[in-house]
Amino acid sequence: MNLHIPKTERRFFLKDLRTSDDGFSLIEALVAMVVFSMAAMALLSVQSESSRALIALEDKLLAEIVAENILVAQLSDDSRLAGAKQSGTVETGGRKWRWAVVKSSVADGEFTNIEITVSNAVDGQLVYNLNSVKVGGE
């Protein structure tokens, strides 16, 4: 059984739509470039945001290390008075950090609250805050 479609009923094909086989038209090339550039800009934006987040995370991690080191020093040194304010600078991870400690007596002297703040020494922006309680007061 041979299927024969008369010429009058034949559908035209995609190649019939093109009048030239020379390649893409200028409009098609421009649209392709716009689509490609939009995708590239989106990827660059994601990469840039990822880099900013990584830097912020590194700052927070280094500031946390500074705060924990200061806390260890505060807990091991009993000669410092509760309620006293102390501050200083330290270099960790190739960066300078400004730290401050505030001690206060809590629950009629049974506990000592230790609050440590760590900020960037360059711009003064607060990066990390650590609170701890020492049992036994002063």
Can you summarize this structure?
By secondary structure, the protein is of the alpha+beta class. It is built from 2 helices and 4 strands; from the N terminus they run H-H-E-E-E-E.
What this model shows, in words?
With 138 residues, this protein is α+β, with helices and mostly antiparallel strands. It has one domain (7-135): Pantoate--beta-alanine Ligase, Chain: A,domain 2 (2-Layer Sandwich). The protein is 40% helix and 29% strand. The chain has helices spanning 14-17, 26-76, and strands at 85-92, 95-106, 111-120, 126-135. The protein has a four-stranded antiparallel beta sheet, with helices on one face. It is elongated, with a radius of gyration of 34 Å. The mean pLDDT is 81.
| Protein structure class | alpha+beta
Q: Judging by the overall fold, what is the CATH architecture?
A: 2-Layer Sandwich
Distance between the termini: 105 Å
Strand content: 25-35%
Report the count of strand segments.
4
Radius of gyration: 34 Å
In N-to-C order, the SSE pattern is: HHEEEE
| Mean pLDDT score | 81
> The biggest beta sheet, please?
4 strands, antiparallel
Give the CATH class.
Alpha Beta
CATH topology: Pantoate--beta-alanine Ligase, Chain: A,domain 2
